[in-house]
Amino acid sequence: MSRHFTNRMIFVALAALAALQLSVAAQASGQPSGSDDDAAIRENVRQLEAGWNSKSGALFAKPFAEDADYVVINGLHIRGREAIGAGHQQIFDSFMKETTLALTVKQTRYIRPDVAVVHVGAHLKAPKAAEGAREADAAITLVMSKEKSGWQIVAFQNTQVANDRH
Q1: What is the mean pLDDT of residues 22-35?
Q2: Where are the strands (E) in 29-149, listed by range?
Q3: What is the pLDDT of residues 93-118, one digit of tens each?
Q4: What angle do CA 70, 154, 28 make, to 5 degrees?
Q5: Of 8, 68, 83, 162, which has fewest CB within 10 angstroms of its CB?
């Protein structure tokens, strides 16, 4: 074999090895973990929606980790599932009691097989009796962690989307 041919074969082998390593790294850092994980994550989002629409703070807070962080649309930072549930029960019993919420998972990005960033669209409706018939949209970012008990929300960020609906 010629030296040129041998060098070329070594280069091809190294390139193939590098490509394999990049593929493994991509799978470990951001590729979908599986349809069971996707379904479980979507179920947590559905649980949030069901808790809101049934006006149950406990049901709303159920998918959160015990030590979760929750940043409200106005910037208030709530810590812990218990506080998230109690705070939501207060708003459900007062100015949000007539509202309905629709949530839609827009994107799930797996940072690792056990950590996901989930982008959710939210649409809130308040009837005429509740503060003059209004609708509002929000973009929610969830950080979720897969634990022995299943997927949990460890961080929640709620950002109002500016629109012309009033």
Answers
A1: 48
A2: 64-71, 77-79, 100-112, 115-126, 134-147
A3: 999 999 999 999 999 999 999 999 99
A4: 140
A5: 162
